[in-house]
Design a protein that fits this description.
2 strands, two-stranded antiparallel sheet, mainly alpha, 1 helix
């Protein structure tokens, strides 16, 4: 029960798996762009209290 989140009327444990696949399996997010996307995803998750 430790990993469950609680609200006043519910108890939940949401799990999402995000996959991004390109047609030819090329790395398109590289360098500075990849770092910025990673930073944005982490900040959004922190804002909504999502555990990665």
């Amino acid at each position: 029960m430790q990993n469950y989140r609680k609200t006043s009327h519910s108890l939940y444990d949401c799990k999402y798996h995000i996959v991004r696949i390109t047609k030819y399996w090329k790395k398109i997010l590289t360098g500075i762009v990849a770092e910025r996307v990673r930073e944005l995803i982490r900040s959004i998750c922190k804002q909504y209290e999502v555990v990665l």
